[in-house]
Design brief:
mainly alpha; 5 helices
């Protein structure tokens, strides 16, 4: 499970968080805490919660199924 979690966090970081290049804006637009965004970007041991994934998917108009397919899980 650890590898899958890392794939998810890395995908979110590379696809959504890094291009925005603004933790506050990304957090606000996705309805998550700015601390969570910092963890996504910096914490190699961060265990992302399903509710965070769902919020990011909803904001980016992507289904969970499509998200996990793109992540490769």
């Amino acid at each position: 499970m650890r590898d899958e979690n890392r794939k998810i966090v890395d995908f979110i970081k590379e696809k959504y968080a890094d291009p925005m290049n603004n933790n506050s804006k990304f957090a606000k637009e996705n309805g998550i805490d700015e601390k969570t965004v910092r963890k996504i970007r910096e914490d190699l041991e961060y265990r992302i919660g399903l509710s965070t994934i769902i919020r990011i998917c909803k904001n980016n108009r992507i289904t969970l199924a499509d998200f996990f397919e793109k992540v490769g899980i």
